[in-house]
Amino acid sequence: MLKSDASPARKTQSVPGNPVARDNKRTQVVAGFLRQIEPVDHGAEPAIVEGAVIDQTPSQDAAAAPEKARSHPATRLAGEIELKLLVDADRMAHFNAAPVIAANARNKGSRKHLKSVYYDTSERVLRRNGLSLRVRQSGARFVQTVKTDAADDPLRRGEWEASVASLAPDLALAMPFIPEKLRDRLETQPLEAVFTADVHRHARMIDLPAGSVEIAFDHGVLTAGDRSLPVNEIELELKSGSASTIYEVALRLAEHGAVKPSIRTKSARGFDLAADTPPSARRPGKLRLDPSVTLDEAFSTILRSCFLHLLQSLPAAEDGRNPEGVHQLRVSLRRLRSALDLMRSVGALSNLDALRSEAKWLAQDLSAARDWDVFQLETLPTIARACPAVAGFDALGKAAAGRQSDAYRKAHDALGDRRCAMFLIGLGGWIETRGWRNDVAAEDLGQLAEPAVNFAQRILSEQYSKVLKRGRRFKSLPAPQLHRVRLATKRLRYLSEFLLQLFADRKSARKFSRRLAALQEELGAFNDMAVTASLLDGLGAGPDSAIAAAAIAGWQARASVGVQPALRDTWRDFTAARVPWSSQG
C-alpha cells in the first residue's frame, strides 16, 4: 500500500510537560502546458485586509461576530490564503537557497520555536464541523486560533486569533466565531488536549511583482499520546497582492527540487494521528452557482471546486490504507476533465488539451489500483460468500493481492513524480489567474460576460441529445454500444452536477438527477463485469484458483442476464423524466 504524506507514525515516549501526554504576464512552458502569471493590479482591493473576514466562515452566525468580540483588544480577525509544499527533511536547506528566495527575500528572515496544543471535545465536535482550535506558544506569547476547513477554494480558510494567558484555551474568546448550533454543546462538553505540535520555523518574506509571500520552513513533530509524526514542509502564505503569487513561488520551488503540493493542515494530520486513522477521502462538496452568474464566474467556481476535490483526495490516495482515496482522486480527475471539456465550447483554448492530457495521464496510472480494490473488496468476497462450496477463493485472493500491490506502487510513483506536482501547481495558477481569458480568441471573449444559464441550456441539451441518440433501440444494444451510452451518460451527469442549479425548476432538477444517477449506476454494473473479466484474464489463475475464477465469471454472466430488465426499466424512467432546462429562456 502507499505511504502517507509524511513518514509512518512511530512510537514515542511521553514528554514531561506535554499536555497531550499528560492529559491524553510572463509565460513559460511547464509540464506540457503554458504558465501564465498575471501582473498584479495595484489599484485592486488587497487580497487580505486587516480586520476583515474572508467568505470562508463556519456559518453566517460566525461571520457576523458580535461587536464586543470584534472590538476586543486581544482579538484579530483575518483570512488565511496558504499552500503547503511537502518536502524531504534532508532537502529543506536546499530549498532555502532556491533562486526565487535568494533573489527576492527581504532578509535572512526569523527563526521561531513554536509549541502548539490542539483542543476539542471528547466527541470531536469541532473537528466534525470543520473547525479547529489551537493555542500556540512562541517565546513568552500565547495565541489562540480558530480555523475553518476550506469551503470552496483550495487556498482560503477562515482564521481568527486572540491573545491568551497560557497554553490553556479561552473558550469565551472563541465562541463568537463558533456556529450558534454548536455553542451549547461546547459549554457542556469540556475541551481536552488532543495532540501537540512542536515545530522549528524559519520564516522569510519574499516580494514579487504580483504580491508578497511569507515562506515558512517548518521542521518538527506532531505528538498524540505515544504516537508521533514528523513535519517537514514549506508553507506559502500570502501577505499582500494576488493569490496567484503563491502558485508562482510554488512553481519556482518545484523547478528547484521535488515537492508535493498539499492543503492538508497540521490539524488534520494531528487528529488522524490521535485517532490512528488514515486520511479521510471526501466526496466533492456541493457546487453553488447563482442563476445570474456570468459564464466566466461559473467557469471559475466549477474549476475551483474540481481542484479543491482533487487536492483533498490526494492524502488518502497517497496513504493507501483507505481505498476510497484512490477512488475519489479518480473521480476528481474525471470531474476536472469534464469541466475542461465544457470550456471547449467557448472556443479554441490553447491550454485545455495539455491540462486535460495531464489529468488523463494521472488518472490512468490510478485506474489499476481502483480496479483491484473493487475486485478484492467487493466482487470476490461477495461471490465467495454466495458459493461456500467452491474452492480456490483464498488462493485467487492472494494472487490478486500481488497485482493490487503492484498497482498501488504504480499509483504511488505517479503521485510522487515531479510531473504530478508541476501539473497541480500549474493548474492552480491557471485557475487563480483565470488563464482561459488569455486563451480565448478576441471574437469569443464576449461569451464569458454573458449569463451562464444560456450556455448551460445549450450544452445540456446537446449532451442529452447525444445520450438519447446513442441509446436508440436500447433493448437490443450490444455491450460495446452500451459502453458508449455509459460514457455519454457519465459526461451528462457531471455537466448536470455543474450546471443544473442555474435553473429555477429545482424539483424537476432533483428528479432528473436521481434518474440520471440510477442509469449511470446500472450501466456501470455492466462495465464492472467487463473489467472483472479483464482482470481474471490477466491474472492467469493457477490450478488451485481456476475453479474460483470460473465461478466468478459464471456468476457475473448470470447476473448480466438478470440485470437487463432493471437496466431497461431505468432507461425508460430516465427518458420519461422532464428535462429541467426545457422551459428556460
UniProtKB/TrEMBL annotation:
SMART domains for the chain: CHAD, CYTH
Name of a matching Pfam family: CHAD
GO molecular function: inorganic triphosphate phosphatase activity; metal ion binding
Domain of life: Bacteria
Residue ranges of domain CHAD in the record: 292-576
PROSITE patterns, A to Z: CHAD, CYTH
Signal peptide bounds: none
Stated name of the protein: CHAD domain-containing protein
Region described as Disordered: 1-24
Organism, scientific name: Bradyrhizobium betae
Lineage of producing organism: Bacteria, Pseudomonadati, Pseudomonadota, Alphaproteobacteria, Hyphomicrobiales
Gene3D superfamilies per record: CHAD domain, Hypothetical Protein Pfu-838710-001
Record-annotated CYTH domain positions: 78-277
